[in-house]
Amino acid sequence: MPVAPLPRRAVDGVLLLDKPSGITSNAALQTARRLLAARKAGHTGTLDPMASGLLPLTFGEATKFSHMLLEADKTYEAGVKLGIQTDTGDAEGTVLSVQPVAVDETRLCTALARFTGEIEQTPPMYSALKRDGKPLYEYARAGIEVDRPPRRVTIIELTLLAFQKDRIVLRIACSKGAYIRSLAMDIGVALGCGAHLDALRRTRIGDFDVSASVTLDAIEGSAPDQRDALLAPVDTLLKSFPKLDLESAAARLILQGQPLCPPGREGLPGDCVRLYGPDGFLGLGQWKEDGRLWPKRLISTE
Fold it and tell me: Environment class of residue 3 by beta-carbon count within 10 Å: exposed (0-12), middle (13-18) or buried (19+)?
């Protein structure tokens, strides 16, 4: 007989998931949510179905801070197949052309050097970027190509990890907004043979590394009453912000939506801080032009 699903409950925390390839980020999220029997869940940015690796998931009160990792730098290991171009720029697309590959390591490294630092990149048609309210991939599936203005992104690191005659493996650290598929295609153009992305694994987001993540199989293999222990605290996504401890009276004011003037404390307008009261994490505060610290996003303490 099928096992009855666990009743949904309040679960708060962050799960560093090692997403398998072959499923969407939302499918991975919903599976984790079911295994944790969580009422509310979200993610901090998606991975393509082909890609594997680090996908931080948020539950309960942590969903209020899901957007915090969208601006973070990311690191990937990418497999690039030389000599074959596809319409999607990856292995899931239709082959458009096949060309001979005559590339040695010296020529390859010279080409890679052109893509390090701040570069211009045209977003691929098969992407979730929207045009007139519709994702580009919908235009692409209808056979329509639309203009995509190039955007400036930063490739912080581009290291050659392996080189065969028609395939390379790269470690890529990049800024927000960089498309690894576009990078693979552009490298192919620079080498004169075309290329597409045939494997992708995200290994790092900001300060989070895939070595600290867990798989869906590991969650499923653990006892239901032990799965909450796999979650990191709600404030895990906010460790880059300075911490401010508040006394009971100040904590009550913040929770009531009131600003503070902490003695001896100040910050630049727009700066955020992690706020803690005697009972723990309260949320984010933000310094304003009036010199006071205002609540920005608070968790429920009920």
Answer: exposed
